[in-house]
Amino acid sequence: MWQVYARHLGADWNERASEPGIWDAIENVDGGERWEAHQTLKARLITFTRRRVVRQAERRGEPASGIAALRSAPGPDARALYCSALERSGHTVVTVEDGFAALQYLESARPKVIVLDMIVPRLSGRDVLRQLRANPETRQIPVVIITGSDVSNLSERAGIPVLQKPFALSLLVDAVDSAVRRASV
Q1: For 122, which of 80, 98, 109, 173 could close a Cys bridge (C-beta 3.0–4.6 Å)?
Q2: Structural domain contains residue 143
């Protein structure tokens, strides 16, 4: 962000922060350019944090499956895109951070459909699905799987729609709409 302001206000802009006019000039910097700089910095921070957490997990000797989940867990931007697309199509969306949180949420709620990423922290999507199907209270809730790995056998065996990343958001909306329609018949 500093570079954006330096380009528009001069390299010494931060030394002139006490000048009243500097704040007006900051307000006049193009919002799109500021947002782009913000998004770039956010992506760098997420990448840095993810790498750091993976290194720490490797040093602690965590299992390879847990480390893979840390590397490929959907970032907040992907989740926000999924949520936004579903909300725009009229769905109410609730998100949780990991597999354990999903199961805790389902102790007291019964959504019309569950969108489940196969690679999530703490408890894999496969384990979440196994527990959902073992519980008579949650067994009938339709599930749409999103994944970066091959789970075609799961789709064929259980009849669960699978979206292979990357996918068009319209496919997610269509899969959720279809699951809701099938469940209400």
Answers
A1: 98
A2: yes
Pair 35, 58 in one domain: yes
- How many domains does one find in the chain? 2
Cα torsion 86, 145, 121, 49: sign: negative
Instruction: State which amino acid sits at residue 100.
Output: F
In the chain (185 residues long), the average pLDDT of successive 10-residue segments reads: 82 85 82 75 76 83 68 67 88 89 91 89 86 93 85 64 83 93 82
Contacts 24+ apart (CB under 8 A), 148-153: 148/72, 148/118, 148/119, 149/118, 149/119, 151/118
**Alpha carbon distances (Å) from 30 to 11, 87, 164:** 17, 29, 37
Establish if 36 belongs to a structural domain. yes
Are 145 and 116 in contact, with CB atoms under 8 Å apart?
Answer: yes
For residue 68, tell me if it sits in a domain.
no
Residue written as token pair 């389902």:
106
| Within a domain: 67 | no
pLDDT at 131: 94
Report the pLDDT value the prediction gives residue 135, as an integer from 0 to 100: 94
